[in-house]
Amino acid sequence: MSLFELERNAEFEELVTHLEESSNTDIRRRAAEILGGLASEVEKTRFPREDVVDPLVEASQDDDDEEVRAAAIDALDQYGQDALEKFIGEVSGQDIDNVAKWKKAKVLAQGLNADRPELRMAAATGLGRIGEDNVVKHLVNQLNDPDPRVRKRVARALGRIGSPECVPALSQRLHEDRYAIRIEVAYALADIGTNNALHELVDVAEADDERLRRIAVDALGRLGSIEAVEVLAEGLQDEAEVVRRTAMFSLVQLLSEAPSNASHKIREKIVGELEQVTDSRVEQPLIDLLEKSTETAQRRNAAWLLGRVASDEYRDEAQEALIDTLADEDEMTSKFAATSLSMLDGDGLEERLLNIVEDRHRDEEARVKALFVLGKIGGEESRNRISGFVDRTESDRLRKRGFSALSKLGGAGAPSGDFA
């Protein structure tokens, strides 16, 4: 069974076996990453939590490859502070399970000076979880650690703590460090989210270095604030395709991160900015997200946006992507796809939807949503064919949705409710 299948099926025992016994470092590293990503699933299975944590602790100390050790430490982070502290206790010989938070922070701060880089990594990660402001100075000093793996996790910890005082030090690293650490630093600045952190990211979004621009627009999607929208919209006009695609990804991500009290305003702002992008650099990234993303929130927002910003040039492609999403397993995504389709009438859409409704081999959910859209865009042809369809179909749900569509089209129907 592939690692992908093991991840999908939450096969903890086999993943642990790969971590402990595989001779391939990439497989061991990936097994550690997957085990970390499945942390929230372990309680739903009968597999004992300690039978995951213990092998990760062992890999964090003893694996021959430094990237595997780093991945194991990050995985322990996903299992919580107690899992990290188990590793720290075994390596340092200090039991910190039952001490006060401030004492624990003091011990972890001392761990930042340990000889073993893995202990420094774990100490930084643990300090980020504890979130005590009085350790910020220690972490800032460790941004100069000789091991890039430590610097990366120090930046992540500072982002978690969110103290504005570390912005200048992070900003310096954003310009001076290696690529992987710059990304983590940019995320930290976005998580801190103060005006000076935002201004730093905005400045970098206009840098000559393409990689820096991509890092900045990637991080700005985490802000969830309206201030980032204009910068990201400008990123859609960037000369580099990777920056343009990242900017669109971030705009969609920003919708997901937006606080509920600002969500409507941010949506309006994003639509307004995207409507001003006139060279068709908007639709294809949205279609790609809708077709390829595995993140539900991203796909929902891509479906929602596509109907509002698709130009005539991309109408066919947008319609096809939305039609393919009508049967999405996430109900909200399929609803957004149907609503967006109703905004993209034309180019034979009515005929395509009627064919879906009449195709007994199509998913019933897609047929239900197709009837909903036809109720909004259909004409005489839809009235005639749906009238015949409701007499033939054996599905109560399709019949009910058919009558609802007919009532909207001026035919004999029943009172309608959205997506009944």
From TrEMBL:
Molecular function terms, GO-annotated: oxidoreductase activity
Residues in the signal sequence: none
InterPro entries recorded: ARM-like (IPR011989), ARM-type_fold (IPR016024), PBS_lyase_HEAT (IPR004155)
A Pfam family annotated for this UniProt entry: HEAT_2
Top-level taxon of origin: Archaea
Descriptive protein name: HEAT repeat
Species: Natronobacterium texcoconense
